[in-house]
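Hey team,

Filing this mostly as a record. A colleague (T.K.) asked me to run one chain through the structure pipeline before their review meeting, and I want the input and output archived in the tracker in case anyone asks later how it was produced. No errors, nothing strange. Just documentation.

Input sequence:
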Amino acid sequence: MTNLRIAAIQMRSGTDPERNAEIFEQFVREAAGKGAVYVQSPEMTGILVRSREELLAKIKGEKDDPIALKAAALAAELSIFVHVGSTAVALNDGKVANRAFLFAPDGSLVTTYDKIHMFDVDLDKGESWRESATYQPGSRAVVAEMPFGRMGLAICYDLRFPQLFRAQALAGARMLTVPAAFTRQTGEAHWHVLLRARAIENGAWVVAAAQGGKHEDGRETFGHSMVVDPWGRIVAEADHDEPGVIVADIDIAASEEARRKIPNLRNSREFSLETAEMARSAEPERAAS
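Output structure:
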C-alpha cells in the first residue's frame, strides 16, 4: 500500500469542547465520504481558550476527553485512521498535555504524542505567548507504524526544530505530520517555507492540518492547511483561513524516489565544531609542537 487518499481538516476551534467535537465529527465524515483513509485534524482540536483557569475547568483526562472518544468511535465506524492533531488533556499534577492521538481503523489507539517544544515567544505588535506556564512539554519523539510505512508525529512549534524531523526520517518515517495553530503573524512569515523545507531536507511527505481565522478567545490563526510532497511541491492547500477539508492522493513511494535522487540522509557526516575563539586558543599549543 503506497498510494492512498489523505485529508487535512481546517478548523476554527472555540471554547466549547462539545461543540468542537461536533464540528470535528462533521469534517471527519466529510473527509471519509471523499475517500480519505487517513484524516488529520489541527492542533487544539478540542478547545482554544486563552484563560488558563477556563481551560482547566473545561478539559478532561485522556480517557474522558470528548475529542479522543469521538475520534476512536469514528475511526472504527468509518474504518479509517483518525489523527487528532492535538487537544488539551488534563494531567494529575495540575498541568496540561498538548497531546496528539492516532486511532486505527478498528478504533484502537495506535499511539499518542505530547508536544515537545513550548511556544514561549514575544512577537511584534505586543503579541506574547507562554505555553510553558500551562503545558507540560513532552520528552519523546514518536514514529508510528502505518500500513503505508512509518509516520512521524509533531505539533505546531515543533516545526521550527529540524532535528526532530531528521531523527524521524532517519528512523524510517516517509510521512511527517505537523498539525498546527500557527498565529497569523508567524504563519504569514514562515508557514509555507518551513513546511516545504522539512519536506525537502528529509525527502518526506508533510501533512499539516491547521486552525484558521478569528477565534472566540480573540486570537487569530493563519489557516492554509497543506500537503507537501517529498520534492517540496504543495499538492493540496486550503488557500484561506476558513474551516473545511482538503484531500490529496499521495504515493508514499515518492519519498524513496526523492531520497534516491538526493541521498542527504545517507550522505550526512559527523563533524566537530571549531569557533574562532577555540582556534586562537589552540595556536600556542600548535606552535609549541
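Quick notes for T.K.: The chain has one domain: 3-263. The mean pLDDT is 94.
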